[in-house]
């Protein structure tokens, strides 16, 4: 009996209409309408109200979504603008930094040029001084300066003159002349006792050694006990030997051409 009643209810137009609406919970509403005897018009009215509410919910959701999208777009444009400003600022800072670096490089190059010129000028002065010293040492130019003068009035042997010359050199003399003959690297001492020759020129007694250098160094070195002067005083007891400091000595240049041998 109950099954027949359900089939009759299912066959009713109201049941078909509810099913055709396809609303969720239609079966439940239908059962409730059966149990409570709710009119079908009220059910249909309730379904229409639900759809209207759903419509408003979707409308509000769409509106909120549109606002969110517009907000994101505004933020993106704002961020892009700020990024562009930041890039412009960074580019300006880099340009200023490059300008300062270029100025610093120019300053350093200028300082380097000044240093190079000063170095070259100082080097030229040093070379000129070294050249003058070598010319004086080699005897190719006249020289003037303080030193000592040693005078020996005796008939010296050539070996005595040569030994005395070596002692004057070892004492630190910068330039030497023997009786007016400038001593150079190839100066030869020859002759015989009482007739000594220097650079092939015969010199007579007294023999005079002129040595340019520091007088306070040359005089003690030559007058030391056991030195060459002590030997000469012992070997030539009748000789007159004097050693004096001189504030200014003039030494002539070597009169002959000095041979130059190129390095092999």
Characterize the structure shown:
The protein is rod-shaped. Residues 1-24 and 28-38 have low confidence and may be disordered. With 264 residues, the chain is α+β, with helices and mostly antiparallel strands. The longest helix has 99 residues, at 40-138. 60% of the residues lie in helices and 17% in strands.
Please give the structural blueprint.
Blueprint: H1 2-11, H2 13-21, H3 26-36, H4 40-138, E1 143-153, H5 158-170, E2 175-178, E3 181-182, E4 189-192, E5 195-198, E6 201-202, E7 207-212, H6 215-223, H7 228-235, E8 240-251
Antiparallel strand pairs: 1-7, 1-8, 2-3, 2-7, 4-5, 5-6
Q: Structural class of the secondary structure composition?
A: alpha+beta
Q: What percent of residues adopt helix (DSSP H or I)?
A: 55-70%
Give the amount of beta strand, in percent.
15-25%
N-to-C SSE string, H for helix and E for strand: HHHHEHEEEEEEHHE
Q: Specify Rg, calculated over alpha carbons.
A: 63 Å
CATH class assignment of one domain: Alpha Beta
Strand line-up across the major sheet = 3-2-7-1-8
Mean pLDDT: 77
Number of helices: 7
Q: Biggest sheet, open or closed, and with what strands and sense?
A: 5 strands, antiparallel
